């Protein structure tokens, strides 16, 4: 079966994301990527002028998928929006525990690694994070409008804190090879989103 231009590019990006999840961006060599993806070197450079350009495209793809999943999960619910937010983080925690995977998400894996090495990749990480935070903010605003939560801060500040807390807990879980940092983060998120009294 002949693949289209998009299929080949997508295949390289997906393969690269999997390898970066295991080895990091710098630990993933282009030769290894091409071998695992089973594409010639010319195909890589046809789609990406450099490894850095590939990294930017990979992060943009990763965050686009992540953002769509988060948005659909939070918006596809007419009931208690506070509970939906808590359920999202509980689902993430459950997934982490079931898979026993300490690779963590790509943003956790690459944040510290590439921010000082590639300005373009740093910008992609920043833009992706901001999109996720904006979606969390909208969900928190809906929860406030519903009267299902009482925030001690603005929805924007609270969304940033939720994102940073979970990102930090994910990193600590990766370091410790334990799920307790994420469990503690979930409990803190529940405290940050109190129900009205």
UniProtKB/TrEMBL annotation:
Gene Ontology MF terms: DNA binding
Residues in the DNA-binding region annotation: 29-48
Stretches assigned to the HTH tetR-type domain: 6-66
DNA-binding among keywords: yes
Matches recorded under InterPro entries: Homeodomain-like_sf (IPR009057), HTH_TetR (IPR001647), Tet_transcr_reg_TetR-rel_C_sf (IPR036271), TetR_C (IPR011075)
Keyword entries, A-Z: DNA-binding, Transcription, Transcription regulation
Native organism taxonomy: Bacteria, Pseudomonadati, Pseudomonadota, Gammaproteobacteria, Enterobacterales
Name of the protein: Transcriptional repressor NemR
Transcription listed as a keyword: yes
Pfam family, one: TetR_C_13
Organism listed in the record: Erwinia typographi
């Amino acid at each position: 079966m002949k693949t289209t231009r998009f299929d080949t590019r997508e295949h390289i990006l997906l393969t690269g994301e999997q390898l970066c999840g295991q080895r990091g961006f710098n630990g993933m060599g282009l030769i290894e990527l091409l071998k695992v993806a089973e594409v010639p070197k010319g195909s890589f450079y046809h789609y990406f002028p450099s490894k850095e350009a590939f990294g930017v495209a990979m992060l943009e793809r990763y965050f686009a998928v992540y953002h769509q999943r988060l948005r659909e999960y939070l918006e596809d619910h007419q009931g208690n929006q506070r509970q939906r937010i808590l359920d999202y983080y509980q689902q993430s925690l459950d997934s982490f525990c079931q898979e026993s995977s300490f690779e963590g998400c790509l943003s956790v894996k690459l944040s510290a690694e590439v921010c000082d090495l590639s300005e373009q990749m740093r910008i992609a990480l920043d833009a992706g994070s901001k999109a996720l935070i904006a979606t969390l903010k909208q969900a928190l605003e809906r929860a406030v409008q519903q009267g299902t939560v009482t925030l001690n801060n603005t929805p924007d500040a609270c969304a940033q804190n939720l994102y940073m807390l979970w990102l930090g807990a994910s990193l600590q879980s990766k370091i410790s090879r334990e799920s307790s940092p994420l469990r503690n983060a979930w409990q803190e998120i529940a405290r940050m989103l109190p129900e009205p009294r």
